[in-house]
Here is the input.
Amino acid sequence: MKRATVFLLMILLAIAVSYTSASAISRITVSINPPSIQANMGDKIIYAGTITNNSDKAADNVIAYISLANVTQGKESPMDLEDWSANKAIKVDTIPPHGTYEGKWPMRLIDSGSYVAYITAVDKNDNAPISSTLSHLEIQRVIRLNPNNVLPIALGEPILIGTVFLFISIKRRRKNK
Here is the structure.
């Protein structure tokens, strides 16, 4: 009798654990692509995010947005994407059951360092936002100043302006004589 009771309790416990873990799985999942990028300052890149509806019901009014965090040693902080990306949030009206939606976030790289990007989706039927894994982003500093183009202008403009004023001055003197 004790064995049967223990056996039934173990079966009930296994059912409860499987039910709890199944209900803990979110209706939607989010992924980011590419998983890592190495680029230069000034480059333009595009992140793609896939939102997958894992349920048997349509997911309505899902909001997805990209976030960026600076993970450079000593400069760790979240980034304001105002200068980096014009497309911050995307509203997805409906994702069909077991369907997917792919959003794109173009980004202009404005500062060097180590960053991580991730996409977060908010489903009104879930109590917590769902985020993708991190995409590592390494941005190299690029100096786009070409001294061969700057020096002629830096020296040539004052000489040209001085020559024009000298020419006007000489012409006025001859006219006044």
In short: The domain at 27-147 is CATH 2.60.40.10 (Immunoglobulin-like). Residues 19-24 have pLDDT under 50 and may be disordered. The longest helix spans residues 147-176. The longest strand covers residues 59-70.
